[in-house]
Amino acid sequence: MHGLFSHAPAPEPGPSSDADVDPLRFSVRVPVGSDRAFEGFTEYVHLWWPVDEHSHFGDGAHMSLDVDGLSEDSPSGETHRWASLLEAQAPARIELSCTYHFEDLAPSHVVVAFRSAGSETQVELTHTGLAVGEDGQRQAEVYACWGPILERFARFMGAR
User: Fold this and answer.
1) What is the pTM of this model?
2) Residue 94: which of 106, 84, 108 has the closest Cα?
3) pLDDT band for position 13 (50/70/90)?
4) Which pairing describes strands 108-117 and 69-73: parallel, antiparallel, or unpaired?
5) CA-CA distance, 71 to 56, in Å (whole number)?
6) What is the DSSP string of 89-106?
7) Across residues 54-79, what is the average pLDDT?
8) Rounded distance between C-alpha atoms, residue 91 and residue 70, angstroms
């Protein structure tokens, strides 16, 4: 009976709950040099971050990005860390270990790169290290918010 059904095509592999999630990539161009773009991203995050849409505490929260990482402070003084800072190389890149919304999973990895493009700067955010399976899919859905967040940053920096 060996090979009885050998003429049948092999079944197509379906989606697997153990499949890796592709890295998330987002990019914007801002009309300033990389020094100013880096400064705007790090020093003024509290001015451009859309806390009305992406916040742990909600209205009145204050975002900061410093040597500890990306954090959010509530009006009552509580702090929630979105990500820990792994490395900052001004004005070229920021590396973060991200746990926001998924504190029960291993941290994922965010790199924000600032690349000079003449008088402008290309800002590229790559989010990798998402979990596998359903957890990774959930992370990818939540972290898709990086696109609109970067667009908000670009507008703050003067992009159209």
Assistant:
1) 0.86
2) 84
3) very low
4) unpaired
5) 10
6) ETTTEEEEEE-TT-TTS-
7) 95
8) 17
Q: Any alpha helices (H) in the chain, and if so which ranges? A: 34-43, 45-48, 133-143, 146-156
Q: Are 110 and 83 in contact (CB under 8 A)?
A: yes
- CA separation, residue 150 to residues 11, 103, 160 (Å): 41, 23, 13
Question: Which one, of 41, 92, 93, lies nearest residue 70 by Cα?
Answer: 41
Q: 146-156 and 34-43 are packed helices; what angle lies between their axes, rounded to 10 degrees?
A: 120
Q: Are 128 and 40 in contact (CB under 8 A)?
A: no
Between CA 140 and CA 131 the distance in angstroms is 9
Record the tokens describing residue 156, joined without a space.
């703050």
DSSP 13: P
Backbone angles phi, psi at 155, to 5 degrees: -65, -40
Neighbours of 26 (CB within 10 A): 19
CA nearest neighbour of 45 among 160, 157, 129, 132: 157
Q: Which two tokens stand for residue 99?
A: 């746990």
Residue with tokens 């992370």: 139
CA gap 16, 30 in Å, rounded: 39
Check whether 74 has a pLDDT greater than 90: yes
